[in-house]
Amino acid sequence: MSYLALVGFAMMIIITVLLLKKKVSTIFCFTVIPVVAALLVGANLAQIGGYVSKGILKTYEIALLMLFSLPYFSMQSDTGMFDYIVKFILKRVKVAAPVLTALTVIIACVCELDGSVLSVYLITIPLLLPLYKKFHVDTRIMPFLCSVSILLMCNTPWNPRILRSASLLTRNNAASYLFVKLLPMQGILLAILLVYAIYLGIRTKKNAAEAGEKVDVNELLGMIKDTELSRPKLFVPNLILTVIIIITLMLFQQIPNYFVFAIGLVIGMMMNYPNLKQQDKLAQKYYAKLWPVTPAVLLSGVVVGVMQYSGMLDAMVKTLMAVIPTAVGPYVYLIIALFSTPLMLLFTNDTWYYALVPIVAAFSSKYGVAPEIVVATLFMNFGAMISPVAQPQIYVATELSDGMDLSTYVKYTFPKLWVLNVVWVAGGFLLGTFR
């Protein structure tokens, strides 16, 4: 192993360990440690400045997208747009156990449109928990379905998870590219999840006497309350604005994604909250939520820049190519994808995307596999939803689910997630998305 490779692997291991143990901030790991590594391989300050500049150029568009897209959906959440969609659905369905489990998926998917994992659990579980108890549905099903729905809806061009993946690609509007590429598999997995949810509900219906059980829909709707920021009269204009933004992202990829959301945010603010003081107050609230995720995404470019332009990445790839048999090389990314559920117990989201994926992408490119293919294949790291290290919001989900133990949630969810993980990779491979 060359000295460059040794320093490169040491840097990634140190970053991973520090983030897993939560000893320092993500921003520290993405700035100080790569600079120290660059100094260790003999780079001077001028060279390091070049590495940083080139690396940041790979991530600045993604950071700008987060700067406008996440506040946009936070604003729409405040207007009540997602709540009104949920109310519309609830008014038009007759609740029973199979319908209830399917509703869990639908409501969770709608709630995840704003990109917030926490909001899915905070809205969906308290809303549906009384019904789960009423129909004797196993409450373990609810956080499981919510978690998979969150993973599914991560494939939107503004979601932090897909933005992390997009930051690893050099093409323009990489988030929209990944969204379109993964959309067929997203639709297939959503259909599979809905069928499985209904099956779980039917099994419950057979095992529990629910005859005569009735639900007061008005009581359920009463649990979704308006606030002073709600804008029920502007629901249709807000929905139209959101649809226009999404269509623009898909059809006009030559327009920078962040600019589309910037315009949407400005129009949405003026339409819903014309008072400038209120706009300023809301903007402060929304942008507070971006710390430290957006700076971390931006500064992840430092790690990528140092690894790539110092020669570390090439040296690391050569080391792996010397160790891994040639026959296995072209399929390494697929093997890692198939085992991503248990592997995520060893990673955080940041270390998965910024430590593991770049190395695998560079390695696979030596065997003719494009980086876009590798990034798309490794995008859906299912195991994040069983790891409280990668996704600490899981603690909230278990606590809301009638005080469920974390171990109970993991034991119930882990095997099902891994099966879905394998289905996702196998389906994407057969469709040609992952090859």
TrEMBL record:
UniProt superkingdom: Bacteria
Pfam families (alphabetical): CitMHS
Domain Citrate transporter-like: 5-374
Membrane topology: Multi-pass membrane protein
Annotated transmembrane regions: 30-52, 59-76, 96-129, 141-158, 178-199, 234-252, 258-274, 286-307, 319-339, 351-370, 417-434
UniProt keyword list: Membrane, Transmembrane, Transmembrane helix, Transport
InterPro entries per UniProt: Cit_transptr-like_dom
Chief location category: membrane
Protein localization: Membrane
Protein name as it appears in the record: SLC13 family permease
